[in-house]
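Subject: Re: docking follow-up (2-acetamido-2-deoxy-beta-D-glucopyranose)

Dear J.,

Thanks for your patience while I sorted out the input files. As discussed at Tuesday's group meeting, I've set up the holo structure prediction with 2-acetamido-2-deoxy-beta-D-glucopyranose included as the bound ligand rather than trying to dock it afterwards. The sequence and the ligand SMILES I used are pasted below, so you can double-check that they match what you have on your end before we go further.
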Amino acid sequence: MAGLPRGSRRIAFLCLLVSCAAAALAARRAGASRPSHREDLDVSIGSGGSGSGGVGIGIGIGGGSSSPPSSSPSPSEPRACDFENERLYRAYLVIQQFRKTVTCDPMDITRSWSGTDLCSSYKGFFCDRPPNVTDRTIASVDFNGYMLRADSLQGFVNSLPDLALFHANSNDFGGTVPPLAGLQYFYELDLSNNRLAPATFPTDVLGLTNATFIDIRFNSFYGELPAGVFCKFPRVQAIFVNNNRFSGSLPDNIGQSPVNYLSLANNRFTGEIPTSIARNAGTLLEVLFLNNSLSGCLPYELGLLEKATVIDAGTNQLTGTIPASFACLRKVEQLNLADNLLYGEVPDALCRLAFDRLKNLTLSGNYFTSLGSCCWDLIKEGRLTVDRNCIQWAPNQRSHDECAKFQQRPKSCPVSTYLPCRAKYGGSSEPADAAVEEEEEHAAVEHRYRTYSALHP
Ligand SMILES: *[C@@H]1O[C@H](CO)[C@@H](O)[C@H](O)[C@H]1NC(C)=O
Ligand SMILES: *[C@@H]1O[C@H](CO)[C@@H](O)[C@H](O)[C@H]1NC(C)=O
Ligand SMILES: *[C@@H]1O[C@H](CO)[C@@H](O)[C@H](O)[C@H]1NC(C)=O
Ligand SMILES: *[C@@H]1O[C@H](CO)[C@@H](O)[C@H](O)[C@H]1NC(C)=O
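The structure tokens for the complex came back this morning:
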């Protein structure tokens, strides 16, 4: 507080009153009160670094610090020797520079950004030691939900050389994605739900070879997704690009990526689901193709994703019958194929997955004409939805005319009957599984799955 001149404090206050009030309201409505719902990705550095309580600040180097840290900061600019180490002093200069560019701060975050105690008192900044470095330094910046506004991040994020994480969900940052590839320790990028200038996929991001987490959802990126997204990040766990304006076909090399959580939802992708997706079988846990304009036949290869718990290809223009391979999705819990152009019989073997993990099979808004016998039970249990199809005896079906018209369309998809796994019949509900499911049932669906969580700003 003391570091902030009177004049600028008044300006900040005015800004809060005039322009931030609406932003604050909007952001609160958008749920910014649960700021970092994906911190549980288990990839955060240390425990945030701030726990160590500012030991040793101001001692050592030079010994020129006359006042104890933060309790009574001197009104003059601190000097290099007032800081725990040189790295923190340089970070201090960068942060002060950035602070001047913050034009909205409804939660009064930047007020804490003064004095020499970066590691304990600066909100949003966390210290840690990079590998083989003895000095503590700014390793992580987490602004999730802070609603800060600045026209650019250039000269800030990219000027903190030891940064490993930058999380800025639900702020109001504009401009382009800063060049981060020079940051040797960097691995987690979250620029979701900001006001970044409409642009194609930021190619500089492809230089983040050690990235584990790439989240640019809820921005205005457009154009094709570069193939590099699926081959430049050998350690990536999550890629969230949903709710942008990406278009064109999905890169053929999608299967090259070791990604666990992939959300492509709510864009304008066209073309087929690349069959290389089969190569993700060992790693892919959740994938959302939801709400694009994908077409072509529902690929056999999706059925090979033996580890996947969520497969959502709803609201596209996919056609064909459900390949027999889908009966091999032994881990799948949420399977959504609703609102496509699928037809034929819903295989009994698919519905039998409910004896394994399947909790929610959504097939509404297609042109299916019949159901395997187990499927009827699932409808009764509320685990299968087949509204708006062409299934005799099922409730809420399309009109006879609508169904007849679709029937007449030429159909070119192969009927895929090959079963790439050993067939399994009957229930196998192990008691352990049942207990786990019971427990999970209490958590809301959208919070249990990382990709579905990513559909909220
Ligand atoms: C750290 O130091 C050790 C031993 O000196 C070395 O083997 C290792 O490669 C270094 N790691 C990094 C990231 O520099
Ligand atoms: C990725 O990490 C490795 C070792 O941890 C390091 O040598 C390399 O420079 C890093 N890559 C980038 C682009 O920083
Ligand atoms: C579906 O995607 C379109 C186009 O990207 C978007 O305008 C629309 O809001 C999305 N629908 C939902 C329910 O998110
Ligand atoms: C089942 O999945 C559909 C499609 O994703 C979703 O709209 C619905 O809320 C889910 N229902 C339950 C009970 O999880």
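A couple of observations from a first look. The pocket of 2-acetamido-2-deoxy-beta-D-glucopyranose (ligand 3) is lined by residues 266-268, 291 (CB under 6 Å). The longest helix spans residues 6-29.

Let me know if you'd like me to rerun anything.

Best regards,
T.
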